[in-house]
Design a protein that fits this description.
Blueprint lengths: L4 E9 L13 E9 L5 E13 L5 E14 L3 E17 L5 E16 L4 E11 L9 E6 L8 E6 L5 E13 L2 E12 L8 E9 L2
Antiparallel strand pairs: 1-2, 2-3, 3-4, 4-5, 5-6, 6-7, 7-10, 8-9, 10-11, 11-12
Length: 208
């Protein structure tokens, strides 16, 4: 049936990845497909093409491919997301030649409602900001502030720049419009000599 498939087409102007780019020379094109094969399941695919002109009048092109798969029922949920972004001729390799900057990442989340009010979750995320693996070319990794750790911006060789995050959490539904969450977050960097802060995060969300 046709209600199993949704197709999205869009054109944007001025939606550039470069904050100081000329909006009139920036365009984004999107093709999205959403498929509902069975009740509670969803598969989404998006392709985005970005083009903009930087301040030195160099045309930049980027392609984004994103996949999302999920299933949810009254007691269980699982989601998987994958994204890869390629910016043509955006960086220099160790020989000084132009090369594409390619970033990718994915996440897997599993949740289970123990009772009507309590859900336990586990999530694993991995991001490689520069898939060009070379110990002579650096990525810039930004580590957020956690507790007394002030955060850091660290140049890491691209063969050691993958960041992984594991989160274990509990959601407690306080009411129909409020929820409390407790998450233990473990960040790990592929580079051995970089800080690896963990965090215990407590949040309360209220909505109408």
């Amino acid at each position: 049936p046709m209600d199993m498939l949704t197709i999205n087409l869009a054109v944007f102007n001025g939606n550039s990845a470069a904050p100081n780019a000329d909006a009139d020379l920036s365009n984004s094109y999107l093709l999205g497909l959403d498929v509902t094969p069975v009740e509670g399941a969803m598969v989404s695919l998006a392709i985005i093409s970005d083009q903009w002109e930087d301040p030195i009048e160099h045309t930049q092109n980027a392609m984004t491919y994103a996949l999302a798969v999920g299933y949810m029922n009254d007691q269980f949920e699982v989601t998987f997301d994958y994204i890869t972004i390629s910016v043509a001729d955006f960086m220099m390799d160790d020989d000084g030649d132009e090369a594409d900057l390619v970033s990718d990442g994915y996440q897997v989340t599993i949740g289970y409602w123990v009772t009507d009010a309590v859900e336990i979750l586990a999530r694993y995320e991995s991001v490689d900001p520069n898939t060009f693996d070379d110990d002579a070319v650096n990525s810039i990794i930004t580590i957020p502030a956690v507790g007394t750790f002030p955060g850091a911006v660290i140049p890491v060789p691209t063969d050691e720049d993958t960041v992984t995050v594991t989160t274990l959490g509990v959601n407690y539904r306080l009411s129909e419009s409020a929820e409390a969450t407790l998450n233990y977050v473990m960040m790990r960097l592929e580079a051995d000599d970089t800080p690896e802060p963990d965090a215990l995060v407590i949040q309360v969300q209220v909505w109408q």
